[in-house]
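step: validate -> pass
step: tokenize input -> pass
step: predict -> running
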Amino acid sequence: MPKEINLDLNKVELRVFEREVYDVIVDNMIKDIEVGNEFPPVPVYRIGENCYCLTPGLRDERGFVEGGHHRAVAHYIANKPLRCRLVYGKKIVKRIRRIANFPVGETRIADYKELTEKYSLGFAKHQI
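step: predict -> pass
step: emit ->
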């Protein structure tokens, strides 16, 4: 069973691979964090002494493929430790080497309404 750890994002560097997350999701997660609700652990790979990376394409304990970006950003903003599970393996190392990663604090928070309107309008144009 993978080891669970709590990462203090002020003391360690967490590298992520998605450039943006949605504001409404992050806002709701922050509210949950503030009232003490817990989230499933985020899969991370240790890449250095105080450096970890979210891992792409892994299934969680429920069978969902999810990288944990919204949870990571919400915990970073809320200044609360992020619950993680350490993962290992050659396939993970190969995946991490293929992705561009950057610090969690550089993640852009996108306006969900603006983004969905932009894509739904574009989709509707192609349907006509």
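step: describe -> The longest helix spans residues 112-127.
step: cleanup -> pass
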